[in-house]
Amino acid sequence: MTLLRGPALLRRSVTLRLWGVQVWALAATWAAICVLQAVAVSAVGVVLRTAMRAPQVQDLVTGLPFNDVHAQIALELLGAAYDQRIGLSLPGGELLAQAFPDAIVDHATIGRPGWIGVAFSDWSSPVAVFTARLLATLLLISFGLALAMVLPRLPWTGRRSLGMQRFLAAAPLLVQAYGIAAVFSMAWQGDTGGGAILLMLATKLLDLDSQRVLLSLYGLGPVLSWLIDGLVVMVVYATALSIRAAARVLARRALHLPPPSAAPGMGRALAAFTAVSLVLMTTPLRARSGIEGDAQVVAAEALMPAAELMDHPGSLPPSKSQVVIAPTATGYEYRVNGERLVVRGIGYNVGHRRLPFDTRQRVLDRDFSLMHAAGFNTLLGWDSEEFDHTLMDAAARNGLGVVAPLVFPAEDVYRNPNLYAAAKARVRAWVLQLRNEPALRMWGLGNESFQVIRDDDEYLRMSFARFLVEMADYIHTLDPDHPVVYREAEDAWVGYLHAALSQGGPRPWFVYGMNIFRPRITEALADGPATYLGQPLLVSEFAPAGIRGRRQHDAYLQMWRAIRAFPDRVLGGFAYAWSQTGEEPLDTLFGITNVEGRPSSWVLRAFSEEFAREDNGD
User: What SS3 state is found at 163?
Assistant: First the structure.
């Protein structure tokens, strides 16, 4: 009897079924879905890269009621999906990667568990990769829905075996379950492509209040991602059901398809496929795509500037500073207390004024000593209340200069005499408070005011330009020892400023600062609109939007070298930004130090080494 039972057990194991559906069919379908998703992600990446550069798309986006600069940045982020290769984590995968290096790579470089996926170049934007993954997954769900609508209605379906009927009905559900689980694994918070999309949409395109957005995003925790993912899935299914309702009558009449029939035991087969797919989604047996190099782990100590450069806070300089921007035969020279310098700046985006005094001083000395050790010599901010005597003293003790900020809203203050007088009084009080500070380098009068004025309000833009120049002249009469810089998003509105500056004599002490996060930095500094102002230029914010990981520091240095390529025209630049815990929601993506004040990437070390090479003449 035992000998007779052996072959029967073997036959049962080979034809193992899951409520009537063979396991081999389940496994084969699962593998096919994984491959299909990887192919879809790669294809969507190519489409994004092509579409975002198409003139028709550029014209369409710039025609929307959003800020043109932010819209262009969004297009570049969405289109930065580069050089994707298939990532494999299978026996023989390394050999395939060596044989076909342009098409296949070891999946381990992605840093995401899975046996197959798409590895994008490390120059790719997390925003583009996240978008490619999301759209490809939604296409997969749509494909599963289409199969579910069509397969049961085909005439030959009913002539198949009972097991095959169950499989043809359950397979589309497996595709959908895979897609839904993949959607719910996508995060919309933190240092991710989804987080960047949400922050850009809320604070830049929709112009929502930064602090409220920040509190909302991080107050909800992972629930926010689940809510958004659930909403995305609901929209897909609502759209599919609407299409099905509209097409049902047409399909029956035109194609003469019979109504679907359910095979016996179909409910159990569907339930089994759904349960198995959800379990498999928690394992590495799935497709996972990402950016090459994301798996790289670096010790925090390796990111610090050289230890011998670290020093302790010194004493305050004996007197106020004197800063001169002197015209030369070829441009301008920036001199601090008689010494010619290049502005090696960093945006200091913190909110420490709420801390106890002793704690705040310790944090400021911690941050500023690290900046000085890295080779930065100037810091810039956005909140005039944060940049008080305590901060100025800490900067001076650590050998740093400061651009003191004062920001004005784009309101009717520029054409209302009463409000105008109040604004002028505010400027006077600000200058008299800080003009004798040894750390003071420039007055940062205003930031990105033109871009928040409505496109159709030409009069308000011109009013603000005149107000800005009048206030700059007023500051110069109160303190002729420190220049004035106005900062704006790139160079789209310099025409208004040019018209206002044309009234009166030369102002070599008036600096135009560009906030730029796009590769067009070289174009803008070489022959962009700002060059026709005839004023000294400063890149008041720069960062490679969208590039993260091991290539981020390379991208920062590329932008810095573009700045240094115009030494007679451009005084220097300010990297954006110091801390991931800044008060702007996007600082979580751009900050080069973490909540503990330690480097969060290679950026700080890279700047330190770059500045050292410049000082050595390399």
Answer: helix
Q: Which residue has the tokens 């300089």?
A: 317
Please say whether the beta carbons of 379 and 402 come within 8 A: yes
Q: Identify residue 5 by its one-letter amino acid code.
A: R
Provide the 3-class DSSP secondary structure of residue 21: strand
In the chain, how many domains are there? Answer: 2
For the chain, report the end-to-end CA distance as a whole number of angstroms: 87
Same domain for 281 and 349? no
C-alpha 116/C-alpha 104 separation (Å) is 10
Average pLDDT, the chain: 80
Residues in the chain: 618
Give the C-alpha separation, 485 to 115, whole Å.
53
> Dihedral sign, CA of 496, 497, 500, 506?
negative
CATH code of the domain covering residue 595: 3.20.20.80
Same domain, 456 and 525: yes
CA distance 563 to 592: 19
In angstroms, rounded to a whole number, what is the distance separating the alpha carbons of residues 384 and 135? 43
Measuring CA to CA, which residue among 172, 604, 575, 588 is closest to residue 372? 604
Tokens read off for 368: 């500023």
Report the alpha-carbon distance of residue 66 to residue 38 in Å, rounded: 34
539: β partners: 573
Q: Are residues 463 and 584 in the same domain?
A: yes
Q: Are the C-beta atoms of 416 and 463 separated by less than 8 Å?
A: no
DSSP structural state of residue 235: H
3-class DSSP string for 425-455:
HHHHHHHHHHCCCCCEEEEEEEECCHHHCCC
Whole-structure pTM value: 0.78
Cα–Cα nearest to 535, from 570, 559, 561? 570
The yes-or-no verdict on residue 205 having pLDDT over 90 is: no
For residues 45 and 136, membership in a common domain is answered with yes
Indicate the angle between helix axes 389-397 and 357-374, nearest 10 degrees.
Answer: 40
User: Quick check: 32 and 280 in contact, CB under 8 A?
Assistant: no
The C-alpha atoms of residue 205 and residue 451 are separated, in whole angstroms, by 12
Residues 6+ apart with CB under 8 A from 575: 345, 346, 347, 542, 543, 556, 560, 592, 603, 607
Provide the token pair at 469: 């120049």
Q: Which of 254, 270, 291 is the last residue of a domain?
A: 291
The C-alpha angle 198, 204, 210, rounded to 5 degrees, equals: 75
User: Could you tell me if residue 335 is inside a domain?
Assistant: no
Instruction: Name the nearest CA neighbour of 225 among 204, 198, 202, 200.
Output: 198
Whether residue 96 is found in the same domain as residue 240: yes
| 3: pLDDT strictly greater than 80 | no
Residues 530 and 592 in one domain: yes
141-155, 281-295, 360-374: range with lowest mean pLDDT: 281-295
266 and 367 belong to one structural domain: no
State how far the Cα of 216 lies from the Cα of 232, in Å rounded to an integer: 19
Domain residues for the domain of 532 are 342-615
